Amino acid sequence: MNLNPSRGYKTEIEAWQSLVHVCRRWRSIVFGSPRRLNLRLFCTPETPTRDTLDVWPALPLLIWGDMASSPGADDIIVALGRSNRVCQVGLSGLADRQLEKVLGAMQLPFPELTELGLLSDGETPPVALDSFLGGSAPRLQVLELTGVPLPGLPKLLLSATHLLRLELSNIPYSGYFSPEAMAALLPVLSSLEKLVLQFQSPQSHPDLERRRPPPSEPFVIPALEQISFKGVIEYLDDLVTYIDVPQLGYLDITFFNQIDFDGPRIAQFISRTPIFADSEAHVEFDDRTASVGLPFPLGDFAMNISCREPDWQLSSVAQVCNTCLPPLSMIKDLYIEHQFSGLVWKNDAIENTLWLELLLPFTAVQNIYLCKEFAPGIAAALQEIVGTEVLPSLRRIYVEAFNPLVRTPFPKEITQFVTARRHSDHPIGLSVWGRYS
Question: What residues contact residue 380 under an 8 Å CB cut-off, 6+ apart?
Fold first, then answer.
């Protein structure tokens, strides 16, 4: 849902207005079939609503715009007062006071509302009451809330049986709802295709002492194709216990930094999805995040950890690969990369141990692609083991070179490891990898 449509969008929506000024007959024809011609009025924060709405018949209303460009919210509130006519609301840049007025005006039922998007820029946004939308949203198809606390949302959406997209981003702690509450909601939303659930901070987490036992059988969510989650691992580990998503084609997970990453239920959930069947995996580091992902063609999967310290990044992604993912025996090609990272890698004993933990589950990898910053440390780590306990199926190492046509020597740690494997009757080839070519 585009919360900041172009000026041309209003012109397009209200193009019919030029026709009714041609003559009385045309005016009669246009207003004679308002539904067939899809006649609508478009209201923005700059629309003089009090004067405009009284000029035209009682047509459906679209209320969109960036509230940051308007000091108040009076005209928008007037438009929201026609609640029985409002079919779309998309407001961004809402300051706390503006959001308070908008939420206050939306305590009544909006029986025609199909799309709702609210984006708050405030620091302490007001909490939406359980009476929001009159407690019912029977025609709602798209709901996008960013930074808007609505703890009673699961109860509200029990009536939104036609919902296609539910996108909740930057959820404040004041808007927290439990994974059990969300899980109870999802089976009702049988048409849901996209779910975004992103909390603002790790403060939003389940009460582990009140954790319920997993259900005997998960609920099948038949239409759900995309899931994006950001939060603590315990929340997602609880949520996915309740659901099965046979049509899932996109899964993006971001965990806040934690000491321990243990998600056996997440691993079981992912193993039931069709996207986790590719033979290629990417482990990537940058200044803010460590991640492991699978690309197309079978689907998009990424598991990210928000973290800045190299040792923490490496430890986190190693734990994720060992505890939160199904067995990685289908992975034949493994890429270990960084993106424009300024992180300082020490290549010391601690990192060597962490590299080995990361590589341990990749038992079927035949080809490993290493960016040049990581190659010496990974090779040094592999030299510390005897035999082929780690990467037993490895056949070739590709080391990054900015220009593959220019012959440059491989790091000595790499050549020493290749020699050691050759002497143990497990020969490994060594090649240049032109990552950016």
Answer: 347, 352, 413
> Looking at this protein, which amino acid is placed at residue 377?
G
SS3 380: helix
How many C-beta atoms lie closer than 10 Å to residue 194's C-beta? 17
Question: Sign of the CA dihedral 352, 354, 355, 359?
Answer: positive
Cβ neighbors of 423 (< 8 A, separation 6 or more) are: none
Cα separation, 209 vs 212, in Å, equals: 9
- DSSP code per residue over 60-76: -EEEEEEGGG-S--HHH
340: region left, alpha or beta (phi > 0 left; psi from -120 to 50 alpha) = left
The per-residue pLDDT for range 199-244, each reduced to its tens digit, is 999 999 888 777 777 777 888 999 999 999 999 999 999 999 999 9
CA distances from 237 to 93, 173, 183, 213 (A): 33, 19, 12, 12
Is residue 37 a contact partner of residue 57, using CB atoms and an 8 Å limit?
no
Instruction: Quote the tokens at residue 419.
Output: 């020699």
Cα gap 264→237, rounded to integer Å: 7
Cis geometry, peptide bond prior to residue 297 (ω within 30 degrees of 0): yes
Measured between alpha carbons, how far is 396 from 359 in angstroms, rounded to an integer? 15
CB atoms within 10 A of CB 348: 11
Tell me if 118 sits within 8 A of 141, measured CB to CB. no
Under a CB-based contact definition with an 8 Å cutoff, are residues 73 and 45 in contact?
A: yes
For residue 52, pLDDT over 90 is answered with no
Tokens representing 397 are 């190492």
- Under a CB-based contact definition with an 8 Å cutoff, are residues 9 and 62 in contact? no
Six-digit token pair at 264? 């056996």
CA torsion angle for 109, 111, 113, 117 (degrees, to 10)?
20
pTM of the model: 0.88
Q: What's the rounded Cα separation, in Å, for the pair 132 and 319?
A: 41
Instruction: Give residue-wise pLDDT tens across range 136-166.
Output: 999 999 999 999 999 888 888 999 999 999 9
- pLDDT of 288 > 60? The answer is yes
CA dist 305 and 188 (Å) reads 31
Non-local CB neighbours of 67 within 8 Å, separated by 6+ positions: 45, 73, 76, 91, 92, 93, 94, 95, 98
Give me Rg for the CA atoms of the chain: 27
Q: What angle (nearest 5°) sits at the alpha carbon of residue 308, between those of residues 271 and 121?
A: 90
167 beta partners: 144, 196
Helical axes 412-423 vs 375-383, angle rounded to 10°: 30
